Structures are given as structure tokens and as C-alpha cells.
């Protein structure tokens, strides 16, 4: 029977196609193969800070971010988002890659949100990972200088 121009079979087919697209769009972070030419992992990139790698799956949100740069200072807060991403793999990604870029993990807080604090001799980096109720992961990366005490 036809009802509003769509048969039951057509409706089921449309539903299956829609579910296939939604399911296929759900991705997780996996271990990335290394690019031998560059010595870096494939599928990662930098945004303003050369020593803070960001997974390519994350989308940069320039309207929620800022970076200040002067002669010998670069600081800022960058926001990235991704719908339906494995948060445990995301945390593991940052723990692994920050260590490879010579960041030292100072401490971490894990619960409803994850906060990772890293340091280098001249700067600090805080990475905050949260998941919104609708499934979007929000990653805030904040990089700033370390205060040097003058005597």
C-alpha cells in the first residue's frame, strides 16, 4: 500500500541507508602509522604550536580559540571538537605524543572530564577533554609561559 507516496519497503531502505551513514561516520582514534619521510605520525597535525600534535579527526574551532604571539612568546587557547570519538583513545594519544615531544606530565585529573597538565622548562600546556551530553568531544589546549623568578 502507498501512504503519503512512500511504501513500507522504501521507508525501511531509507532507514537502513541513514543508519549506515551514521554508523560509518562514527570513528575512533587508532594507533597511526609513521610517515617514514617525516618521522611523524600520519593523521596528526599542528595548530600554531609546533610541539603540540592534534589528531586530524578533531576540527579546529577558530571562533572559540585565540593565540597571542610576540618576539619570544607564544601563548593561547585552542578549541577542537569531534562528534562520537573514543575519549580513552584520545587521552592516550595526548599522553603518548606529548611525551614524544619532550613534554613532562605533571599531573592529570580524570572523571567527568579529563585534564592533563604538562610542562617544559619554558612553558606549560593544559589539555582539557570533555564530552557534551549529545556526544561531541571538546578538547581545549592551552599553552603558556612559565614564570621565571628574577633575583
How is this structure best described in words?
- By secondary structure, the protein is of the alpha+beta class.
- The protein has a single domain, classed as Protein Transport Mog1p, Chain A (3-Layer(aba) Sandwich), CATH 3.40.1000.
- The protein is 21% helix and 40% strand.
- It has 2 helices and 11 strands.
- It has helices spanning 8-25, 87-100, and strands at residues 34-35, 40-41, 44-46, 53-55, 59-60, 66-70, 73-83, 104-110, 114-119, 123-131, 136-145.
- The strands form 3 sheets. Strands 5, 6, 7, 8, 9, 10 and 11 form a 7-stranded antiparallel sheet that branches. A two-stranded antiparallel ribbon has the order 1-2.
- Strand 3 and strand 4 (53-55) form a beta hairpin.
- The N and C termini lie far apart (87 Å).
- Mean pLDDT is 81; it is low at 21-42.
Features:
alpha+beta; two-stranded antiparallel sheet; 7-stranded antiparallel β-sheet; Protein Transport Mog1p, Chain A; 151 residues
Beta fraction: 35-45%
Please write the string of helix (H) and strand (E) elements: HEEEEEEEHEEEE
Query: Major beta sheet, specifics?
Result: 7 strands, antiparallel
Overall shape: it is: elongated
User: What CATH architecture would you give?
Assistant: 3-Layer(aba) Sandwich
Tally of separate helices: 2
Topology summary:
Elements: H1 8-25, E1 34-35, E2 40-41, E3 44-46, E4 53-55, E5 59-60, E6 66-70, E7 73-83, H2 87-100, E8 104-110, E9 114-119, E10 123-131, E11 136-145
Antiparallel strand pairs: 1-2, 3-4, 5-7, 6-7, 7-11, 8-9, 9-10, 10-11
